[in-house]
Structures are given as C-alpha cells and as structure tokens.
C-alpha cells in the first residue's frame, strides 16, 4: 500500500530541511570565495546544487524514501570532505549534519551513516591537533544517541497516528480514507503498467437479522471475525476496507488468471468459518469489477456495486462479476 500521508510528511520535511541547508550554506560560498579558499567554496556549491537537484527529483518522481537516503549519504560525505579539506574552520558543521540525518532516514540507518562519517573524520582529518579527539567522539556519540531516542519515539507516534488515520476502530480493517488513497494509487499503477486489478464489494447476507436476534454486541463480534477470516485468506498485497455497516471492499492490486476460483474459494472459506451464536453459517455476496482503461474510482465502485446487486437478486451467497 502506498501511504500518501507518510509520503507527504516526509516530503515536507525534506523540502524544509533543504531550504534550511541551502540558506545556511550559501553565505559561506561567498565568504570562502572572498577569502581565497576556492576548494571549500567549490565543495559548498556542490552541496547546494546536489541538494536542490535531489529534492527536485524527489518531488517530481515521488521517490521520497530513496532520495532521502541518498541525500543523507550525500550531506554526510560532504561534511566529511569539507572538514578534511578546510580543517577546524568547518568543524562545527558536523553537528547539524549528523542531527539532520535522523530526519532523512530511519533512526538505525542514521546511526550507521553517522558512525561511518565519524570514523572517517577521525582517521583522515587533521582537526585533532587543535581539539580533543576524545571530546569529539563522546559529544558526537551523545548527540547521535539523543537524537536516535527522539527520532525513534517520533516514528512510533507517527505509526500510531497512521493507524488511527487509516484503520477502522471496530474491525481493524482499513477505513474509507485508506481505501480512497489506495484506489487512486492502484489506478495510477494500472494506467501506467496495464496490470489487471480487481475491486470487490462484499456484503454479509441478512446481517440485520443477526443484530435483531442477537444484539449489536454479537453483530460487532461477527464483523471482527469476518475481517480476521477474510484477511487470513487473501494475499500479502491485497487490502480489505470497511465500506460501511456490513459492507466491505477488497482491493487486489496484483491479479492472476484464476480470479473466479479465488473469489469462490474465499466465499466458501467465509461460509465455512463464520458462524452466528446458533452455529448457523453467515454467507457473503460478492460484486466484483476488474480494472479497465479510463476507469475512475467512482466508476470502479459503481460497477462492483451493480454486480453486488445482481448477486443479491440471484439469491445471495454467490460471486458476480461486472460486465466490463
């Protein structure tokens, strides 16, 4: 599943960090050029151009995670180079670069990148004739560990927010917000790659009778059981969403030529495993629509919904495919 919330968040951080970096480095290009330190000025210009190019590529190509990792390595290599070339005058740049690495990549990855950069500086730089090598190691270790703890906590909080934003609180299935985002991503991928994809609306047959006879608490538990059973029988990249009430949507982004067999098998498994308190089987009707060129989210859902109505007209507990 392509998580647009996470992508937008990471992209906003990337843009903000790049603006701060460019604004911070730019004055030193002029200062070092006027001071005759052309090597340092060239390194600074390279860093600025590299950051701008990579961020621009991330924005247009939408490859946020990959580009963020490249930028993290790039700025660490840049600070190592400038410290080795310019000595003590560029020493303090190590700290903001090491801290910003945790914004760009996962905390454990940032620790690794910082460790490599730190060891390289210790081994090849001559700044330790002026400052204490032990102090450098300890202060950078403390900085990295403190930011690591903060970044790990932030990542945990973001995952919690992500779950609240995309998950139905009752059943644990994905919600309509997640469905809308994933359908758009699936449509883009289908139009680009021409891969056959499927959308199914699943409706629990006569579910109102269950609520009326056993109460809503039992009905809620049956919905939870339905989600657990269904998710255990679908593929790794298939996604189940609660569409409303007892209706669910199943999105299959990578399909085979055996879809009729798959849906029949899923329907049979649900009928076999999902029971009401009296032990009677609870059946499910399926309305299935495949992706066709120029499909929109609305037309895709409409075709699946029309197929679902046909399934109900045919006595329920069956799978009906939309006529593309």
Description of the molecule:
With 324 residues, the chain is of the alpha+beta class. It has 2 domains: 4-166, no CATH class; 176-321, Alpha-Beta Plaits (2-Layer Sandwich). The two termini are 25 Å apart. The chain has a 5-stranded mixed sheet with strand order 2-3-1-4-5, with helices on both faces. The protein has helices spanning 4-34, 38-61, 64-86, 94-104, 107-124, 133-166, 176-193, 207-214, 216-233, 259-273, 297-313, and strands spanning 198-204, 239-244, 247-252, 284-290, 319-321. Residues 195-324 form the GGDEF domain. One of its GO terms (biological process) is negative regulation of bacterial-type flagellum-dependent cell motility.
What secondary-structure arrangement, pairings included, does this model have?
Layout (H helix, E strand, L loop, with lengths): L3 H31 L3 H24 L2 H23 L7 H11 L2 H18 L8 H34 L9 H18 L4 E7 L2 H8 L1 H18 L5 E6 L2 E6 L6 H15 L10 E7 L6 H17 L5 E3 L3
Parallel strand pairs: 4-5
Antiparallel strand pairs: 1-3, 1-4, 2-3
Helix pairs in contact: 1-2, 2-3, 3-4, 3-5, 4-5, 4-6, 5-6, 8-9, 9-10
Number of helices: 11
Secondary-structure-based class equals alpha+beta
How much strand?
A: 5-15%
What is the number of beta strands?
5
Labels describing this entry:
EC 2.7.7.65; 5 strands; GGDEF_dom; 9% strand; alpha+beta; membrane; diguanylate cyclase activity; Rev_trsase/Diguanyl_cyclase; Alpha-Beta Plaits; 324 residues
